[in-house]
Design goal:
The structure is a single chain. The chain is mostly helical. The protein has a single domain, classed as Helix Hairpins (Orthogonal Bundle). Helices cover 93% and strands 0% of the residues. The protein is built from 2 helices and no strands. Helix 1 packs antiparallel against helix 2. The longest helix has 93 residues. The chain starts with 7 loop residues before the first helix and ends with a helix.
């Protein structure tokens, strides 16, 4: 006699939710990687501007050491100011992208927690099913024992009546 678990459909639904949560986590991790890649690109752009600023500062010092004319010094100072503003813009972009990476990381962490929670639900259902199956086996054994007792009693009664 096959024992059919009455909550099998619930187990299947919960298992489907685990699969969906795994897919969500995978998508969130891919989004996180994309955001990290964007951050690396923005940091590289910022570093390029920093290097350019550093080169211009060296050029300005060299010009000051040479004692070049005032208009040339002013021109380089103005250009350095522009590069500093550009560096500030690049720093802001990096900071904004770091925020996007943090958000993506938080989303991935939340998806991971959700997946763990759903896996625990499925594990609880499997444990319940095992307990239920043990209980059903015990009940079947009791029923079979009663049937055997009845058959034994009937056999004994018939044996006695027939005079054996």
């Amino acid at each position: 006699m096959a024992i059919v678990y009455p909550l099998q459909q619930v187990v299947e639904v919960k298992q489907k939710r685990v699969e969906d949560a795994e897919l969500q986590l995978k998508q969130k991790l891919m989004a996180l990687e994309v955001e990290k890649q964007k951050l690396a690109e923005k940091e590289a752009a910022r570093d390029k501007v920093k290097e350019h600023l550093s080169n211009k500062m060296v050029q300005l010092r060299r010009i000051l050491d040479e004692g070049t004319t005032c208009p040339k010094i002013e021109q380089v100072k103005i250009y350095v100011k522009v590069v500093k503003e550009q560096l500030a813009v690049e720093e802001k972009k990096v900071k904004e992208q770091q925020n996007q990476v943090t958000i993506a990381q938080n989303n991935a962490d939340a998806a991971r927690q959700e997946l763990n929670r759903r896996r625990q639900e499925v594990d609880k259902m499997y444990m319940h099913r095992e307990d239920w199956q043990k209980q059903m086996r015990k009940e079947l054994e009791v029923i079979e024992a009663r049937e055997q007792d009845e058959l034994g009693s009937i056999g004994h009664f018939l044996h006695k009546r027939m005079g054996f």
